[in-house]
Amino acid sequence: MSTSLAAYASRAVPRYTSYPTAPHFREDFAPSTYAEWLRRTDPAAPVSLYLHVPFCRAVCSYCGCNMKLASRYAPIAAYAAALHDEIALAACLLPRGLPVGHLAWGGGTPTALSPDDLAALMERLRRHFIFRPDAELSIESDPRTLTAEMAQRIGALGFTRASFGVQEFDPRVQQAINRIQPPDMVARAVDGLRGAGVSRINFDLIYGLPHQTEETLLTTIATAAAMRPDRIALFGYAHVPWMAKRQRLIDEAALPDGTARARQSERAAEVLIGLGYQPIGLDHLALPDDSMAIAARAGTLHRNFQGYTTDTADTLIGFGATAIGRSPFGHVQNIAEPGAWARAIGRFILPVAKGVAISAEDRLRGEVIERIMCDGEVDTDAVASRLGCATGWCGDELKTLDGMAGDGLLMRTGTAITLTAEGRKLSRVVAAVFDTYLAAGRARHSVAV
Ligand code: SF4
User: Fold this and answer.
1) What's the CATH number where 89 sits?
2) Is residue 15 part of a domain?
3) Low-confidence residues of the chain, pLDDT below 50?
4) Which atom belonging to ligand 1 lies closest to the Cα atom of 107?
5) Fewer Cβ atoms within 10 A, N terminus or C terminus of the chain?
């Protein structure tokens, strides 16, 4: 990477899983506004559902998620009971029998729930929503704690996809991130779910971890790819100890520098492509018959708070502490602390902590940012026309992009821009040109690569 590209790579910019991004959601947002948005949901359009379970049996020191250590089941059981109530509360406001095209369980570790509690919550959802026959039902799990009974139940409940955080197999790196899971443990978990009928498996891998080298990462990739996951998310470790306090346990001196991170990311992607995986957006790869690879080829890939998604629904209803939801009217995020979240539900109040209504300009800028992140190309006037906005709206942004074109990040023809191969690795930096909230500087972000 040249010096100018390395300077772009070290810029701290958002991951653009929404626009406006989460730091710009307003804390004075009223739950009654979200209730109104739910009431106005289009009864005919499929919605997506997300359920967050913030509990884990152990804490990984790299973790930036909203999670709580749970050594006993009682808090998890209480949480499951509050989830039932939150679903019922939202269902009172929504049109009856909304169709569902996507359901995702994330965390934390959703499989920290007992098999019976998971089944009861799925039954609750099926009581209030109509799952389309082709709906994708996905769940995150942890190879260290997934039991054979839970794997069987996940299959029996109709889940079509499961995700595992694999990260890195090198024992020294696993020690440094406090996540010990040898390859045979992961292989057993994968085999258990496939044997139960869960046809698609996702792996998360991470580069830029403490003590990680190109060699350990490539060995990890060879071992992981032998298990033939359908989809791989290849993330750079985001070291944000000012936000994720547990990352203070990470020895900063053992972290690879920017040049080494960029090299790890490049080599990992090269090797996976050589093994038959199709690169998707900034940080995903998938086998060519995976739905995400198909969506990327068709130009129908999207972003939501989980990253890249094949989900095309305008409405995503989030349940659980810290869950993020989206509607055509704006974004919301639930209260993060499980106790406060449950108490709001107990008072029959939607447990929303913050949110933001989106303007026509936000929608336009968000769409341009999403196409840059997903396709590596966009025509700003074409997007404006499609959304019924005035064309010729981004003169200043185009001037900034011309500077980036001079540095080899992109090519511009009129209002159409196409990122180069180098520019695609820096798509967050290019997308940030269209972000009018970034200058408000409310948040610190991780570096671009
Ligand atoms: S990385 Fe996953 S399993 Fe580890 S503490 Fe965070 S949420 Fe839990």
Assistant:
1) 3.80.30.20
2) no
3) none
4) 7
5) N
Indicate if ligand 1 lies below 6 Å from the C-beta of 142. Answer: yes
Quick one: pLDDT at residue 442? 55
Residues 221, 89 share a domain: yes
User: Residue 35: which of 86, 93, 98, 89 has the closest Cα?
Assistant: 93
Compute CA 335 distance to the chain's CA centroid, rounded to the nearest angstrom. Answer: 18
| Residue from 68, 71, 76, 109 to probe ligand 1 pocket by mutation (most atoms less than 8 Å from CB) | 109
- Residue 85 Cα to ligand 1 midpoint, Å, equals 26
Atom of ligand 1 nearest to the CA of 58: 5
Q: What is the pLDDT of residue 170?
A: 98
Q: Verify whether ligand 1 is closer than 6 Å to residue 247 (CB atom).
A: no
Distance CA 304, CA 311 (A): 8
**What pLDDT shows up at residue 52?**
97
Other Cβ atoms closer than 10 A to 93? 15
365-407 pLDDT, tens digit each: 999 999 999 999 999 999 999 999 999 999 899 999 999 999 9
Tell me the sheet residues that pair with 447: 12
Q: What is the mean pLDDT of the chain?
A: 94
Residue 129, judged by CB atoms within 10 A of its CB (0-12, 13-18, 19+), counts as: buried
Q: Do residues 312 and 371 both lie within one domain?
A: no
Q: Tell me, yes or no, whether 380 and 316 share the same domain.
A: no
The pLDDT, as a whole number, for residue 443 is 59
| pLDDT computed for residue 1 by the predictor | 60
For residue 307, is it within any domain? yes
State whether the beta carbon of 67 lies less than 6 angstroms from ligand 1: yes
Counting from 1 in the atom list of ligand 1, the atom nearest the Cα of 56 is 8
Residues 285, 378: one domain? no
* Ligand 1 atom at shortest distance from the alpha carbon of 67: 7
92 belongs to a structural domain: yes
Q: Is 220 within a domain?
A: yes
- CB of 63 sitting under 6 A from ligand 1: yes
Looking at the DSSP assignment, which residues form a beta bridge with residue 377?
Answer: 418
Residue-number span of the structural domain to which 415 is assigned: 359-436
Asked whether 109 lines ligand 1 (CB < 6 A), one says yes
Instruction: Say how many domains are in the chain.
Output: 2
The residues, any chain, with a CB within 8 Å of residue 295's CB and separated by 6 or more, are 301, 302, 310
